[in-house]
Amino acid sequence: MSSKHLPGKKAPGPGRPRNFDEAAALQTAMCVFWQNGFEATSLDDLTAAMGLSRSSFYGAFGDKQTLFLRAVEQYSKNGIRNLKEIAEATEGDAVEAMMEAISDPHGGSRGCLLVNCVTELAPHDAKVAELGRRHLESIEEIFAKAIDPQNPDAVRDRARAYTSLAIGTLALRKAGIPADRIADTLKQAKTVLSP
Fold it and tell me: Which residue, among 104, 118, 20, has the nearest Cα to 68 in the 3D structure?
């Protein structure tokens, strides 16, 4: 008779509890992908940075692609939440504050993880392309509400233009354009995009 049928014996649990912080491991993976890109990041890079064995990695995250999508999704959620907070907390020009936050002229050449991923993978990865579209549409929505809180749909084109310009400055940053020139570009946004 199997021990699981003996009186007083409990069925075995689902396995050992994880002895690592999954959220912290996901954050670490996000940084590795951000630094190296998806293709150049190996499983060894990830497990070493996250401090996990391969079995723990597979048990918690599945595979590299699944982990990557989770990391980018988390990055997107954090970014959208932060942008909403900036829009709501700014007493002056919320659009200008958001443009500055997205472009981050002094942020160095690493760029935006999500834009980097879309550039690298979206042409041949539908899931990444969809994630990128959702992210950009969310930014556009925040801009539209900041421009015209009463009727954001009426200013959707302007909101999309602000989004495109802000995202474009990230390419300038990655190309090594000096921060003061990026700041000057942002100053022209209102002139170019005013109704």
Answer: 118
